[in-house]
Specification:
Largest sheet: 6 strands, antiparallel
Helix content: 40-55%
Strand content: 5-15%
Structural class: alpha+beta
Order of helices and strands: HHHHHHEEEEEEHEEHHHH
Length: 293
Amino acid sequence: MTSVPASYYYQEILRLLLQVQTPIRERCRNGFLMFQEFLQQETSEAGVYLSGTFAKLHYLFQNRKVDEEQIYIGLNDYRVRMGNLSSTRDEVLQADFAYDMLRLARLVAWRKQVPLPIQLKERLPQLLPELKHRKGRFAGDFRVVVLEKRDDFLLVYCVNEGIEQKVRLKSNTDERSDFTALLPLININSNLNLVDTRWVDDVLEPTLIVLEPDFLISVTAIANCIQPTGVCSEYEVVNRLQPVPVSKAILLGNMAGQMLDEELHGYASTYPETARRFFYSKCCAVLHLYRAE
């Protein structure tokens, strides 16, 4: 994927700042779309499929230094607030907008190693308000990042709440909630989804833990590892070397899946552009089907 220069993002940020007659909600929406576009560009060669804004943001900052922590916290806070854009009052959006654009500009400068142009710096605040970790009681589902792991608990960062908290891996009240078997698979910076989480003795106790929820594993691939001769992961590797059946139904299903992904992730694209990308990536399969008929 061709890299987009920093000057493009700086010009877009400046344009949004100057659109004072445009409704603030529309300016916020366009700014967040640009933020998502930047994350998509910067993670396009990650080698793994990152399914959402948080996954991409965390990937960029997974080895962050101490002086980059406030940038990460601020951008994550921005991500959470834009998720509630429709229910946020206009005066709140107006008060935060310039600071959010400064956070975005600093992200571009950090990744591209290109300083902010003078005309943009003059339109932005000079300093960002320091964001403190919010406190609060818990109930429900949580997205967390692992900071430390022990034999019986994890220290995690709760993404949407912005605080650190302990997670007990073996419940004191429910014998079925024992996740100690996950310990060898969990590393520092692992992403977890804690499902149906309870607050017990100042520690989180989840009913279910999803390890690395941004990695999608095909059920078919797992099934291919189970053969009459035994269970072995190499079966799936061998299976990939075999010819893949191609039909109109399969290709239509693949295209429908691509269109759904683009819609879910806010990827602005016309139908001709979508079709062009699909046929570019599936040209051999389409040609094979055409010749077979």
